[in-house]
């Protein structure tokens, strides 16, 4: 009689057939071309691992100019993926590829706080709660390094947003991201949401 499976064993998620196909990287476009070239030359690929290893070595030796055609294809495919994912998630496709809003001073502090708590046996929600409490107890001088860091993040975001719009992103100018109030409970809720933000990269 076999041993029963542990109750906590995770079940693999069923793949959603409607989910857009992931973007193809420049290297995989190159690999695909190498396969086609091999096929046209009448050289069947008998050992996949060996063939892939050879392609990988060739790719590593190529300069940026040689890689450019594949990089362009990859960028086009990424734009396709971003637009399809926006529709799939019910978002405006015009926002595809839009830079993520910058971190507030509190979130910069939270990232630092998490690093200090790394390795400690403390629940994620408890760490968020402790961070909120610690932030509220900081004086203005103690908050300054995080406020400066947040300002730099804001400047980077504005530049990235400007570049994105110049590249045709967004049908109309987007509203500026709403800055969170320092230490508010809303920040704690938003941080938990941000953790789940990046399911795209499966």
Automatic annotation (TrEMBL):
<feature type="DNA-binding region" description="HMG box">
    <location>
        <begin position="20"/>
        <end position="89"/>
    </location>
</feature>
<dbReference type="GO" id="GO:0005634">
    <property type="term" value="C:nucleus"/>
</dbReference>
<dbReference type="Pfam" id="PF09011">
    <property type="entry name" value="HMG_box_2"/>
</dbReference>
<dbReference type="Pfam" id="PF00505">
    <property type="entry name" value="HMG_box"/>
</dbReference>
<keyword id="KW-0539">Nucleus</keyword>
<dbReference type="InterPro" id="IPR050342">
    <property type="entry name" value="HMGB"/>
</dbReference>
<feature type="domain" description="HMG box">
    <location>
        <begin position="20"/>
        <end position="89"/>
    </location>
</feature>
<dbReference type="InterPro" id="IPR036910">
    <property type="entry name" value="HMG_box_dom_sf"/>
</dbReference>
<feature type="compositionally biased region" description="Basic and acidic residues">
    <location>
        <begin position="1"/>
        <end position="19"/>
    </location>
</feature>
<keyword id="KW-0238">DNA-binding</keyword>
<feature type="domain" description="HMG box">
    <location>
        <begin position="99"/>
        <end position="165"/>
    </location>
</feature>
<dbReference type="InterPro" id="IPR009071">
    <property type="entry name" value="HMG_box_dom"/>
</dbReference>
<dbReference type="GO" id="GO:0003677">
    <property type="term" value="F:DNA binding"/>
</dbReference>
<feature type="compositionally biased region" description="Basic and acidic residues">
    <location>
        <begin position="136"/>
        <end position="166"/>
    </location>
</feature>
<feature type="region of interest" description="Disordered">
    <location>
        <begin position="133"/>
        <end position="202"/>
    </location>
</feature>
<feature type="region of interest" description="Disordered">
    <location>
        <begin position="1"/>
        <end position="23"/>
    </location>
</feature>
<feature type="compositionally biased region" description="Acidic residues">
    <location>
        <begin position="182"/>
        <end position="202"/>
    </location>
</feature>
<protein>
    <submittedName>
        <fullName>HMGB1</fullName>
    </submittedName>
</protein>
<feature type="DNA-binding region" description="HMG box">
    <location>
        <begin position="99"/>
        <end position="165"/>
    </location>
</feature>
